[in-house]
From TrEMBL:
<dbReference type="InterPro" id="IPR010985">
    <property type="entry name" value="Ribbon_hlx_hlx"/>
</dbReference>
<protein>
    <submittedName>
        <fullName>Ribbon-helix-helix protein, CopG family</fullName>
    </submittedName>
</protein>
<dbReference type="InterPro" id="IPR013321">
    <property type="entry name" value="Arc_rbn_hlx_hlx"/>
</dbReference>
<feature type="domain" description="Ribbon-helix-helix protein CopG">
    <location>
        <begin position="3"/>
        <end position="40"/>
    </location>
</feature>
<dbReference type="InterPro" id="IPR002145">
    <property type="entry name" value="CopG"/>
</dbReference>
<dbReference type="Pfam" id="PF01402">
    <property type="entry name" value="RHH_1"/>
</dbReference>
Length: 59
């Protein structure tokens, strides 16, 4: 697994910590991984399609 570093506003970090404290996620890292999976799931196909269209135009 790769590691990345991000900066978040204090309010978002506190909300992530609250989600962990409430038992929604085992760790803040897992909460962030979940959020990234959701983002990629919702937007990834569109980005790939658009990228493929741009690539096919260049050929």
């Amino acid at each position: 697994m790769d590691r990345i570093t991000i900066r978040l506003p204090r309010q978002q970090v506190e909300m992530l910590e609250r989600l962990v404290a409430a038992g929604e996620f085992p760790t803040v890292s897992e909460a962030v991984r979940y959020a990234v999976r959701e983002l990629v799931s919702r937007h990834g196909d569109r980005v790939i399609r658009e990228s493929d269209q741009v690539t096919s135009l260049k050929i």
